UniProtKB/TrEMBL annotation:
Keywords: Antiviral defense. Residues 215-237 are annotated as: Disordered. It comes from Nocardiopsis composta. The lineage of its organism: Bacteria, Bacillati, Actinomycetota, Actinomycetes, Streptosporangiales. This is CRISPR system Cascade subunit CasD. GO terms for biological process: defense response to virus; maintenance of CRISPR repeat elements.
Length: 237
């Protein structure tokens, strides 16, 4: 078994799984459907092409730097009539960083890694207005999904690591696909069956939420607490 690792960092990200009409929300972490779309675009697949091989990969994501949720209002006018369209709300994650991983067949993951290094269509972080700030592919490694999410170094920005310098080790939240037969903590309509514009289809995906611990490169143990002896200050014994 092999694992393809991706890093997702940028000024803004947005990963909607249930957005409708004028309110476009974001999940707290990248969705499997969003990243399968990114992989398919890197390979140059059209929206009507099959996704079975990508959807069959086991997926997990770790929140290295959760970011801050921000809201934007957008207005638009109809291209033909000029009439004002309804004001829409769009939500984003600002200054977030994630480590994502796909587990599956090594040959397929190597193909995807090569495609990400030379993508047919440029990648974006959930919406076209959200370009990545770092290179996305981190390579293909042997092993399982959980080991990859537990063993990879912390990807948070240096200023964020410095902010938590009193923690030599930090706990990070992670969402992982449950295996067949396991009980899911949460379900999300996030497994793409087709991206065809006339008939987009998604299935439910079972998730497990867990926490992993990683080392903080900027971490230092807290300073020692000075001895406290008020009697000595009064000259007593």
């Amino acid at each position: 078994m092999s694992v393809l690792l991706l890093q997702l960092a940028g000024p803004l990200q947005s990963w909607g799984a249930s957005s409708r009409f004028a309110r476009r929300s974001t999940e707290n972490a990248p969705t499997k459907s969003g990243l399968i779309g990114l992989l398919a675009a890197a390979q140059g697949r059209s929206r009507g092409d099959g996704l079975g091989d990508l959807a069959g990969l086991r997926f997990g994501v770790r929140a290295d730097q959760p970011g801050v949720r921000v809201r934007d209002f957008q207005t638009a006018h109809h291209a033909d009539t000029g009439e004002a369209m309804p004001v829409s709300e769009r939500f984003y994650l600002a200054d977030a960083v994630f480590l994502a991983a796909f587990e599956g067949d090594g040959a397929l993951l190597e193909e995807l890694h090569e495609a990400l290094n030379d993508p047919v269509y440029l990648p974006y972080l959930g919406r076209r207005s959200c370009p990545p700030a770092r290179s996305i592919p981190l390579g293909v490694r042997e092993g399982g999904l959980e080991d990859a999410l537990n063993g990879h170094r912390w990807l948070a920005a240096e200023w964020y690591q410095e902010k938590r310098k009193r923690e030599p080790e930090v706990e990070l939240g992670a969402w992982i696909d449950v295996r067949e037969g396991e009980t899911a903590h949460h379900e999300l309509r996030d497994l793409p069956l087709s991206f065809a514009p006339e008939h987009r289809r998604y299935a439910m995906r079972g998730l497990e939420y867990t926490r992993v611990t990683v080392a903080n490169p900027q971490g230092a143990p807290p300073p020692p607490v000075p001895a406290h002896d008020p009697i000595a200050a009064l000259g007593g014994e």
